[in-house]
Amino acid sequence: MYDPKSLKAEEFIDHAEIEETLAYADAHKHDRELIGQIIEKAKELKGLSHREASVLLACEEDDLNEKVCQLAEQIKLDFYGNRIVMFAPLYLSNYCVNGCLYCPYHAKNKTIPRKKLTQEEVRAEVIALQDMGHKRLAIEAGEDPVNNPIEYILECIRTIYSIHHKNGDIRRVNVNIAATTVENYRKLKEAGIGTYILFQETYHKESYEHLHPTGPKHNYAYHTEAMDRAMEGGIDDVGLGVLFGLELYRYEFAGLLMHAEHLEAVHGVGPHTISVPRVKHADDIDPEAFDNSISDETFEKIIACIRVAVPYTGMIISTRESEEVRAKALRLGISQISGGSRTSVGGYTEEERPHDTEQFDVSDQRTLDEVVNWLMKDGFIPSFCTACYREGRTGDRFMQLCKSRQILNCCHPNALMTLQEYLEDYAAPETKEIGEKLIAAELKKIPNEKVQNITIERLAKIKNGERDFRF
Ligand code: SAM
Which H or E run includes 160? Predict the structure, then answer.
């Protein structure tokens, strides 16, 4: 029985409700009146239900689809402005006891070397990342209670936060590790993590069990209920995602939004972010083996529909996607991207991109500086801001900031100040020149005069060597 407030996976992600939703959406894919009403509702910026959003995703009326994309762009601009938050993944260990069919780290893969960073190696990787200009990391690891127990993850987090190389600083560590216990989530919270990210992979229980034949990840309920345990453990910024390509995308889309509705219903706050990874080639993984791959057009439509359905949720895209796809996705609602990523264990300290332990092939292989330069040329502000959680603006407090439209007086100056730091410390001369002009123009957009003046003062101080200002 479908119940968004239930704590049981099969009740808040109810298969029958998803099937009915998909049938309803299909029956209304040409219903111009209903689709028009849903678009009008989305304009109120209060979000859409999974059913309403599923109708938009199914819509086969070209002009209305165009309207949804335009609205997604508008909502993106209203809430997130032209800022794009930058981050990098850091792979700690590829030891894994699970049998995920799509992941090269699966336990039976004997062709990849297994590697786990020592604290000295973590230090070297972090210095390399700081030297690129990164301030925000997402740590990644396989699931292996012997090789990567929670104590190892916590030790790595402590090491990461302790390193201050030149003007470098990692100010926010997000964590993408397997579903775990409330007690372990509490430890992660105490270690000062930002967002806890866990991809559902697929919301379709039967497929989930088939795709995860062995290991602890096989347990659908334990995995699906992980965010509730994370919130119980005190983590109030959680990041959802599905791995597109494994199951029918319309099923995943409805499940994802039902999960968001569930978190809102039970904990009073929806997901902080939603990621949209697609299955990629990697070592012994052939994406063609999964027959639900989606075209770039469908992928873009999904992003636009998520944007209008959950306007306050950040959206993340990784370097799994090419420059071209990322350019379109940024306009439709993505607010965070990775740059200069290496998806192998120990990859940042190697001169050449290593492939031996890569989790997936990277499509966008540009350096961070190239991505920053590209974003700015396209009118975006690359932001290295990590202020919110450091100021305690997590969970519903962050949502309040969004809803009260204070982003231009808070996130916008923070983005400009952290970009200035990047320009001073890491940018190539051409990037610096473009950035200086962009900051001068963007300063004028800060509505509150006092905040604008403080920002101008702080930018001058940054040029004089001071660091880490924030609102
Ligand atoms: N081991 C943890 C877990 O099971 O959730 C951490 C996550 S893993 C290091 C990061 C994510 O990469 C997975 O959740 C999965 O969605 C994604 N992934 C795995 N194989 C992939 C592939 N071949 N292509 C693209 N993404 C992949």
Answer: helix 150-162
Residues 114-160 have pLDDT tens digits of 999 999 999 999 999 999 999 999 999 999 999 999 999 999 999 99
Give dist(CA 407, CA 425) in Å, integer.
Answer: 26
Kindly give the distance from the C-alpha atom of residue 359 to the centroid of ligand 1, in angstroms, as a whole number. Answer: 7
Residue-wise pLDDT tens digits, 396-445: 888 788 777 788 889 999 999 999 999 999 999 999 999 999 999 999 99
Nearest CA to 338 out of 297, 371, 360 is that of 371
Task: Specify whether the CB–CB gap between 219 and 185 falls below 8 A.
Answer: no
Contact 240, 256 (CB under 8 A): yes
Rounded Cα distance between 415 and 409, Å, is 11
What is the rounded distance in angstroms from the CA atom of residue 31 to the CA atom of residue 60? 9
Do 396 and 268 form a contact (C-beta atoms < 8 A)?
A: yes
Instruction: Output the 3-class SS for 78-130.
Output: HHHCCEEEEEEEEEEECCCCCCCCCCCCCCCCCCCCCCECCHHHHHHHHHHHH
Protein residue whose Cα sits closest to atom 3 of ligand 1: 178
Question: Which residues are near ligand 1 (CB < 6 Å)?
Answer: 102-103, 140, 142-143, 176-178, 198-199, 201, 217, 243, 277, 279-280, 282, 285, 320, 359-360
